[in-house]
Amino acid sequence: MIRPGVWLAAAFSLIFCTWPASAHHSFAAEYDSTKTISIKGTVAKIAWVNPHAYVYISAKDQNGKPVTWAFETLSPNALAIRGWSRTSLKIGEEVTVDGYLAKDGKPLEDGSLHANSRQITTADGRRVFVGSSAPDAPQ
Amino acid sequence: MKRRSPSSVLWLSAIALLCGLQMIAAAQTVSNEKTPVGPTPRTPEGKVDFSGVWDPGLSFTNLGQVPLQPWADALYKERRANLSKDDPEGHCLPAGVPRISPFPQKFVQTPSLVVVLDEGNVHSYRQFFLDGRGHPKDMDPLWMGDSIAKWDGDTLVVDTIGLNDKTWLNGQGVPHSDQLHVTERYRRPDLGHLSVEITLEDPKAFTRTHTFTRTYTLLQNWEIHEYVCNEFNVDADHLVGK
């Protein structure tokens, strides 16, 4: 049997030690790795822009009110080298996005809720745009 | 000083080991391309040919422990405490020298000049002049400095000065001054690999010379991509730090 401390060490190493090969800004300066979210909704828009592509998700908040989330992903060039393109996700496709809330809690200029995506899973189980956006990001 | 208990030392060691294993796992190139195998290519003049699109992989984070003078160490600690919120790269400014991004670099070589095109963090370029010229006199401080090069056998030795003090040496915020002098020794031991030994001297910011290395792999079927950092840099307004 593996002692609980080993699992603890493994969990810590996952949180603090991974270095995805992409960077633009410090993850920890913008997002809170302790505030994880999982949002189920449909793809509203793909913004294939630099320094980070954004996936906009139409979802409902806890009161059933429609909201739009803007999830930061990797940069288009970093997504491309991993085999993803701007058409890997279809508008209207149902997805679940796991990610981290922005620290400042402020929406983007267009009013969409702001978060960083760690992983996007489609209804048929494909994991798309996997990975976060800075060397200090958890993954 | 408080002594750690043997069990906490064990857990710290376990975390360090797991970190190491994960970093090794992550050190592979992110593309699906297999690194090509073959002899070192040479130009018609018989020089090592560094041309190609090169992937730094994880080695873009290499720097090692830079021996900082107290003022520079204090600045480094301040940047750490702020979680790197003021990193120039987050504001779409050039990486400087020798910092690089995780994105590929393209080397273009002629007998008198090697040009390095950076895909990111912002599009930038370096020119390694191989025509025997020296550095200009009374240079204005530059983001990417002034680089002159010469051959030492099969090694391309690049000497860079004239750097401003605005850039960070890595994402953690290791500082340098405008007296930074960078010597890079580029080698291409075979077709698929490029290695560079980088020596940093900075009499205003470091206590001694510091050397580290990076290794790149060749992306034979890949081009550098367009990366216009300022297109939608909404991050700048949301980098709050702590």
Blueprint (SSEs and pairs):
The complex is a heterodimer of chains A (139) and B (242).
Chain A: H1 4-16, H2 27-30, E1 31-47, E2 54-60, E3 66-72, H3 76-81, E4 94-102, E5 113-122, E6 127-128
Parallel strand pairs in A: 3-5
Antiparallel strand pairs in A: 1-2, 1-4, 2-3, 4-5, 5-6
Chain B: H1 6-26, E1 52-55, H2 70-81, E2 105-110, E3 113-118, E4 124-129, E5 146-152, E6 155-161, E7 181-190, E8 193-201, E9 210-218
Parallel strand pairs in B: 4-5
Antiparallel strand pairs in B: 1-2, 1-9, 2-3, 3-4, 5-6, 6-7, 7-8, 8-9
Which regions of chain B are unreliable across 5 or more consecutive residues at pLDDT < 50? 12-28
User: What integer value in Å does the Rg of chain A equal?
Assistant: 15 Å
> What's the multimeric state?
heterodimer
**Number of alpha- plus pi-helical segments of chain A:** 3
Which second-level CATH architecture of chain B applies? Beta Barrel
CATH class of chain A: Mainly Beta
Q: Fill in the CATH topology of chain A.
A: OB fold (Dihydrolipoamide Acetyltransferase, E2P)
Sheet of most strands of chain A:
5 strands, mixed, barrel
For the largest interface, the chains and their residue counts are: A-B, 47 and 49 residues
The largest β sheet of chain B comes out as: 9 strands, mixed, barrel
Secondary-structure element order of chain B, as H and E? HEHEEEEEEEE
Strand content bin of chain A: 35-45%
Class computed from helices, strands and strand pairing of chain A: alpha+beta
Could you tell me the CATH topology label of chain B.
Answer: Lipocalin
Mean pLDDT of chain B: 89
Q: What is the number of domains of chain B?
A: 1
Q: Determine the mean pLDDT of chain A.
A: 83
As a percent range, the share of helical residues of chain A equals 10-25%
